[in-house]
User: What shape does this take?
Amino acid sequence: MTDTAMYPPQPSPDADTLGFWQATAEGRLAMCRCQLCGLWHMPPLERCRECAGPTAFEPVLGTGSLYSFIIQHHPAISGYTENLPYAVGLIELDEQQGLRLPARIVGIETSAIVCDMRMQVVFEQLPGGDYVVPVFTPAIP
Ligand SMILES: [Zn+2]
Assistant: This one.
């Protein structure tokens, strides 16, 4: 096993995703939003799919509801072998119906995870590089 096999895959920011990663580096969650009509986009787009207006990354609250999730039991991705089993969810953010962000779910036993539970973002340093990634944990009522 090489050193790189011990770490999770690293993000590769491009023009469409750089704003997302710049925000997470500062412990903020930001999503792509149309600057004309206000529609949020995930995945990020250079132009709005509704009005073709320009987009930019804007901060979001980092709260939402768990739309769907899987429990990962097999070491499919390097760097997470010691965390098995773990959950990956689609969190529907409060800003807009259908605005869903995939993320790991932490701070709860996988057997206790249910759809529609309220979630909030927290940030983790991604091992093996300089990136900070958003993960979600059950929201404190
Ligand atoms: Zn628009």
Summary: The first strand starts at residue 30 and ends at 34.
